[in-house]
Every structure is written in C-alpha cells, then in structure tokens.
C-alpha cells in the first residue's frame, strides 16, 4: 500500500507499507487512527502514546495565531493513508 510519511523533522516522503507491523514500526509503537479532516477519504496513523512518551509535535499539523505556533495532539512521525487499503493489510509478513 502506498502512503505518505510525515516526519517530525519536516521531511515528507511517499512510502510502501505491506503489513500492519510496518505501520507500527514507522510510528514507533501502537497505532492510533484518526480521520484526516482535510480529506475524509484518508486517515492519519500515529503513535497512540505519542504525547505521553514525549514524542515531538509534528510540524505538518500545527496552526499559527499571530506570531505563535500552536501544536495539537499530533506527535511523532505520522502516516497518511487510504483506510480501505490500510484495514486490509496483513498483521505481519508471516500472514502475507
């Protein structure tokens, strides 16, 4: 499955994910899934404990108010994907 990886260092790249475990490895732990507000046909996949374990804010999901940057709950590296494809991935490469 093709997806987009949005890294906390500002890097954005197209990636290939073949298993659910790939997604977990990319976000560094258990995943949390949220709909992408800007495009309801996509989901955001993130580390579910990102804020609690101190992952940095993701610069792709922030807003500005005057001269101040305001970050939300999107921490760590994020994956943007098509839910129809993501929810059909095998758990790991043993199930391919």
Keywords:
five-stranded antiparallel sheet; 96 residues; two-stranded antiparallel ribbon; mainly beta
Helix percent reads 10-25%
Q: Between the first and last Cα atoms, what is the distance in angstroms? A: 13 Å
Fraction in beta strands: 25-35%
What structural class do helix, strand and pairing data support?
Answer: mainly beta
Helical segment count: 2
Biggest β-sheet strands, sense, barrel? 5 strands, antiparallel
- What's the shape? globular
Tell me the count of domains.
1
Description:
The protein is mostly beta strands. 12% of the residues lie in helices and 33% in strands. It has helices at 20-27, 83-86; strands at residues 2-6, 12-16, 31-35, 43-47, 62-65, 68-71, 78-81. The strands form two sheets. Strands 2-1-7-4-3 form a five-stranded antiparallel beta sheet. Strands 5-6 form a two-stranded antiparallel ribbon. Strand 3 (31-35) and strand 4 (43-47) form a beta hairpin.
Topology record:
Layout: E1 2-6, E2 12-16, H1 20-27, E3 31-35, E4 43-47, E5 62-65, E6 68-71, E7 78-81, H2 83-86
Antiparallel strand pairs: 1-2, 1-7, 3-4, 4-7, 5-6
Summarize the structure in short:
The chain has 96 residues and is mostly beta strands. It has helices at 20-27, 83-86; strands spanning 2-6, 12-16, 31-35, 43-47, 62-65, 68-71, 78-81.
